[in-house]
Design a protein that fits this description.
The protein is mainly β. Helices cover 0% and strands 56% of the residues. It has no helices and eleven strands. The chain has strands at 4-5, 11-12, 20-23, 25-28, 31-34, 41-48, 51-57, 60-65, 70-73, 82-91, 97-108. The strands form two sheets. Strands 1, 2, 3, 6, 7, 8, 9, 10 and 11 form a nine-stranded mixed sheet that branches.
Length: 113
């Protein structure tokens, strides 16, 4: 599968980045349906050279409706200026692993501390 691209808006260092919802789907023969995430492991890593912030179910990722492919990355902050890259990797109950979402978030310097 080719990952979808989902960039975050620019944020200021230390400011809260709001939660972001995802619905994972696939299209077969022009029919789109939600992927069943029951029993799946979901991980997301945000990376800036020298820094890494990891999220997983129960630790920054919340499953909203697993059977309908819905989850969210909870609110969080990033404290280092630069363009962070991230992706979301899902390990399904059949042990198949796919990176389904990729993106970036630019963290800007702040003046008020």
């Amino acid at each position: 599968m080719i990952p979808s691209r989902a960039n975050y808006k620019d944020h200021t260092r230390g400011d809260t980045i709001g939660k972001r919802s995802f619905t994972i789907t696939r299209t077969v023969d022009n029919v789109t349906s939600a992927l069943d995430l029951v029993g799946a492991e979901i991980r997301a890593d945000f990376v800036l050279p020298g820094y890494k912030v990891s999220k997983s179910i129960g630790n920054g990722i919340t499953l909203n409706n697993a059977s309908n492919g819905q989850f969210e990355i909870d609110s969080f902050t990033l404290d280092h200026v630069g363009i962070w890259e991230y992706d979301i990797q899902i390990k399904f109950s059949d042990e198949t692993v796919n990176t389904l979402v990729k993106g970036s978030i630019k963290i800007l310097n702040d003046v008020t501390k």
